[in-house]
Design brief:
Blueprint (H helix, E strand, L loop, with lengths): L2 E8 L6 E8 L10 E6 L11 E3 L1 H9 L3 E2 L1 H10 L17 H27 L1
Parallel strand pairs: 1-5
Antiparallel strand pairs: 1-2, 2-3, 3-4
Length: 125
């Protein structure tokens, strides 16, 4: 069974509250889970103790059993000192999307077209 340590959303609309759970990866995000490992309340200030609470011993147990963490939970575990920090690299993150590239190319073509007659007139004089 493929195990994940992930967040399960609770709380009402616009008031998120998450449980950190160990679940089968095939189960839905807010569906059945095996064990509740802690809580995460993003509405609390970042320096608050109650923002992230987790049972570190149980998390270590599940990691020893082969459970994989999601990116967000992995960051929380790194902050808690449970797992070593990993280097993240996403070189395409700042790169514009396909449509933005197309718009930029069209804009450059229009500018080149507009500048071409002005350059020809300057060359004739």
């Amino acid at each position: 069974m493929a195990m994940k340590i992930r967040l399960a959303r609770g709380g009402s609309k616009k008031r998120p509250f998450y449980r950190i759970v160990a679940a089968d990866s095939r189960m839905p995000r807010d569906g059945r889970f095996i064990e509740k490992l802690g809580t995460y309340n993003p509405l609390l200030p970042k320096d608050s103790e109650d923002r992230v609470r987790m049972d570190v011993e149980r998390v270590k147990h599940w990691l020893a059993q082969g459970a994989q963490t999601t990116d967000r939970v992995a960051r929380m575990l790194e902050a808690a000192g449970v797992t070593p920090k990993t280097e993240r690299s996403n070189p395409k993150k700042g790169e514009p999307g396909k449509k933005a590239k197309d718009r930029a190319a069209q804009k450059a073509a229009k500018e080149a077209e507009a500048n071409a007659p002005a350059e020809e007139a300057a060359a004739e004089e």
